[in-house]
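Quick log. Single chain, no ligands specified.
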Amino acid sequence: MPARKLKTPTSSALGVRDGDALLLVGTMKGLFLLGSRPNRRRWSMAGPFFPGSSVYGAAFDPRAGRKRIWAAPSSMHWGAELAYSDDFGRTWERPEVPLVRFPEASGASLKNIWQIVPGRASEPDVLYCGVEPSALFESRDAGKTWSLNPGLWGHPHREKWQPGGGGLCLHTILVDPSKEGRITIAISTAGVYRSEDGGRTWQARNHGVRAEYFPDPYPEFGQCVHKVVHHHAKPGRLFLQNHWGLYRSDDNAESWQDIANGVPSDFGFAMVIHPRNPDCVYIIPVESDEFRCSPEGHLRVYRTRNAGQNWEALSRGLPQKGAYETVLRDGMTADSLDPMGLYFGTRSGQIFASVDEGRNWKKILEGLPPIVCVKSAVIGESRAKPARPAPAKIQRPVRKAGPKKGRR
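-> predicted structure:
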C-alpha cells in the first residue's frame, strides 16, 4: 500500500548499536526513544515523534533481521494509525490509508490501537494488534496488510461487553510459544479469553476472578482485567492484575487463585514478569478505583519471587513523601540484560529505572507529557553482553523536584 516516508531531523534519530538497551516511551503528546549502552549508565533521547498524538501502542520487532519500531499514534481529529521506522526514527513509513481499519460491513470505526505484539519466532511475518472497540487484528505479511479476527468479533458475548474507564479496549495479547494456535487476550471490561485454534474460536477464562460490581461477583465474563503476563519458559502459568485483585493461574487460565498477600492495595494496572524467572513478578499498586495514585503518597514497586506467596516493597531511590503517582497498564517494562533492567513511566511525565532488578532506583527523565506506554528491547539481542548494575543517568539535565488492604 502506498506510504509516506516522513523524514525527521538527524538530531531526532536515535543513535544505537547492537547490544544497546532501547526504550519506547509513548505519551499523550508523541513517542520518545531512549537508548543506552548495555551498562545503562547514560541515556540519549530522540523525539518527540508524532508530536501532539497520543501513543498507547509501541513495539520493537527484531525478527527476520529487522530492527523495526512500530508505533500507533492517534489523533483526536484524524484517528489512529500504524507507522514504523527501520532506522530508529530517522524516517517513518505512514500509509496514506490506515493499515488497521474495520471492514465497512462491521459498522465499527477504529478509536485507538492499544497493543502491538510480534508473533512467534517461528512466524517472523505475523503481528497482532489489540484495538478499541475491542477487536483483534492480524497481519501475516510483516505488517503490509491487516485483517480483523472474525471469531472474536462475532463472539456471542460481545453484545454484553461494557467499556471500562479507558474504553472497551483489547489491551493484552499473549502468544504461547510452546503450543501453536494458543493465544490469550484480555479486554476491559470483558475479561480473559483464550483460543486454542489460532483465533478461530474463543472461550472465556475468568473462573475465580471477581467482578464486584455485578450481583454475581464471579460471572463467566465481564471482569475488568487490567493486565495479564506469562513467561515463555512456563506459559501455562499466568498472572493477572484485576480492577480489584491479584491472581495466578497454574492451569492455562482454566482457573485463577487470589495472591494479594501483603500488598497495600490489590488495585493497579502495571504488571511485568522477570525475563528469566517465571516465579518473579513486579507490580505497582494504586490506592483505589476512586483515587488512582500510589498508596499514601509512597511510590513503591512490589515484587514476588515465589509466584505470589508473598510480596516485598522496593522503594530505594523512589520518592516516599507526597508521591501521588499513577502508572498505567503498559507503563512498566523489563529488559533482557543480566542483571535485568526495570523501567516505569508516570502520568506526571517521569521515568524511573533500576538496573539491578529493582533493588535501587533512579529517576532518569522528567518533564515528558503524561506517559501511557513504556516498552523495552535490546538491539541485536543475541549478541548483547551481560551488564553490571550501575547508576542510571541521562545526558539531558533532570530538574529536582501503615499499609491498607484493597477492597475484598
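The longest strand covers residues 234-242.
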